[in-house]
Amino acid sequence: MPLRIALLAQPRAGLSANLFPSSLATETIKLSDDLTATLNTAIQVVNQGKAVTLTSQSGLSVVLMAGLTAAQNRIHPHAYLSGFAASLPLAVEQSRRQSDDVSIEQTSTASTAVEQFSALYQLIDDIAARNQQPEYTQEGGDDCQYWFTEPNKARVASLTFNTENLAFDAKSQAGSTSLVLTQATGLKEAKPLLDSSRLFFIITGNTEADLSTKLAELSKCFVNPALNSSVLIELMHQNLVRFQAGSQAQFTIVLQGASVDAMLLEINALTKVLSKVITEKIDYKTPAGSYFSPAPDNQGKVAFVYPGVGTVYPGMLRDFYQYFPDLYARLEREGNLKEMLQADKIYAASNGKTGSQPQEMTLSELAIAGVGSSYILTQLLCESFSIKPDFALGYSKGEASMWASLGVWRNPHALIEMTQTSPIFTTAISGELTAVREVWQLGESEAITWNSFLVRSEPAAIEALLPQYPRAYLAIIQGDTCILAGCEQSCRDLLKQLGKRGIASNRVTAMHTTPAWSQHAQVTDFYNQPLCDELQHHIRFISAAELLPQNANQPVNLDRQSIAISIADTFCSTLDFTALIRAAREHGARLFIELGADRQTSTLIDKINRADKVTDSLAVATNAKGGDDIQTLLKCIAQLITQQVPLSISPLVDGLARQLVSSETQSTLHTQGEPV
User: Fold this and answer.
1) DSSP-derived pairing of the beta strands 177-183 and 131-132
2) Max Cα separation, the chain?
3) Is the pLDDT score of 165 beyond 70?
């Protein structure tokens, strides 16, 4: 008989009293020593049209109701119980699934009914959170990660209780039991971005005296003996709500710390130098993420910067899904999120921690994952934090990320499969390098040994030697360094004559070299993509192609052919990233926000600004390899706040508000004598 029981994992804090309509009859059943028998009893009650709250001595509860009842009352379950039988094959058959549909098969080693119930609760919770525990995977590993699935395919998991582990009295009553759970529409509540170990306070004022007074007042709050975790959360919530409601002041300080003691250190350190910082108009920042810009450029324009190929790293954005579940759910609906992030490579268990050695990735895989990370970070900043860029530009293939991420191409997800199979990326300018072989007029038996080198040199010095080395190319100019690419021996000989040491990248790509021009028409066709009906005309898209002599600094028209040609021009020409940043500054860009994995372009922009002796321009990264993803994001938001960039801090406030509600509910339950 088909089974479709809606399940909701109910934490110790309890569900909202408004969750169920008053017309829905409910019944509470306490867990007995036999989970199987208890579930059977609960299902019988559900079949009578009631909702059941199944409670355990641990304080956890699971609500069960008919799937149709949940739908009629607009309740979004965390999972469905669709199979419940004496063996896994029977449970799968009852669920009307195929065995291959079950992506997680878990066998519980629990020795009591309470432990079994906890295992069931955890699986429901993981389905709602789209969370894949290390023990669920064959490869193992140390950390949880996003539970990726194929497009339009629900997550299906099984849980089998091994009765050999049960106590003797329970074993005599229970047979082997298997459950099949399937994904439902409910999502687990987002984890809060801020908590008692991730503190974030905003101080505003129009004078130095204002700031000093408010810093002193905040310091007094932190030495309050009654300052427990709940009071601290409330204090932070009140602070951010006041900032939300207040008018803009001349000065804005953001303080961050991992504890009350750390915050006191941050306050004391800033208080000592506050007068000097304001007088000399020096931007102040600390490793903990506190920032203060005493002279924010209120007229400064925001530019989104998209990095090129090769910045992705193992474990990038690993935890984002826990903090932004709605975003990930939408991305899943739009396309293949697993492919977009190249999850099999980026999140492979062998990669372990963030920043470890990645699995070997092809140019096309690096390109897809790079665009994917940029796309997610763009949606995050624009939708969650309501940040609106005035300009957008890309480093190398980052231009494709720019058009894909900012609502220009109608279906950017379509480019994933195209990139995986296009000979442009698989053989022409990477892999076999057929474009290079053709230009160099090599026979099939003649080998190509290609490499690229990072060298600290003025571009003019390299350009002067290039005629002597026709198979070496100046690919990229970026601040005080350049990228030299081509025949490895030719590049090494040129570097020797130049008297410079180069750092080999050992990456095979002929982008930005003369052989790439043989692919110009193909690249144009590849990126000739349908556009959205409504385009982002308020954004000035700046292409490196504009700086080429044939384009005479003319902006790219927002039509599909012009965009495609501009990408092809950039793809095939030497990239002068230094000139691109200078052009953006001339247009009015002052605050450059990097949207992509790691912070390579931010570092380059800082170097370019310093070399140009520019003090009113700043580069901010949204991500950094080796850092905590959320902490890096908060540092970015903190810098934007102190620079007085218009944005929403609702994601910060909402997470604190949820914690306050949870704390109040737990306090009420505790007062009533319920387990918490």
Assistant:
1) unpaired
2) 87
3) no
3-state per-residue secondary structure call for 244-298: HHCCCCCEEEEEEECCHHHHHHHHHHHHHHHHHHHHHCCCEECCCCCEECCCCCC
User: Between vectors from CA 666 to CA 662 and to CA 672, what angle results, nearest 5°?
Assistant: 150
- 415-452 tens-digit pLDDT: 999 999 999 999 999 999 999 999 999 988 899 999 99
Say if residues 133 and 126 touch (Cβ distance below 8 Å). yes
Do 95 and 178 meet the contact criterion of CB atoms below 8 Å apart?
no
Amino acid present at 312: V
Whether 447 contacts 546, CB under 8 Å: no
Residue whose entry in the numeric block shows the structure tokens 């790509």:
509
| DSSP reduced 3-state for 472 | strand
Nearest-angstrom CA–CA distance, 434 and 442 = 10
Say how far residue 666 (Cα) sits from the centre of its chain: 31
Reading phi first (left if > 0) and then psi (alpha if -120 to 50, else beta), residue 329 is in alpha
If we measure between CA atoms, which residue out of 417, 414, 335, 410 comes closest to residue 376? 335
6, 67 contact by CB (below 8 A): yes
Query: Are 60 and 72 contacting, i.e. CB atoms less than 8 angstroms apart?
Result: no
Which percentage of the chain shows pLDDT scores above 70? 92
Q: Which two tokens stand for residue 522?
A: 């193909």
Residues 6+ apart with CB under 8 A from 640: 387, 591, 593, 620, 647
pTM exceeding the 0.90 threshold for the entire prediction? yes
Reported as a single tens digit per residue, the pLDDT across 74-127 is 999 999 999 999 999 999 999 999 999 999 999 988 889 999 999 999 999 999
Angle between helices 363-379 and 325-334 (to 10 degrees): 130
Q: Residue 338's CB: how many other CB atoms inside 10 A?
A: 18
Which tokens is 19 given? 């969750």
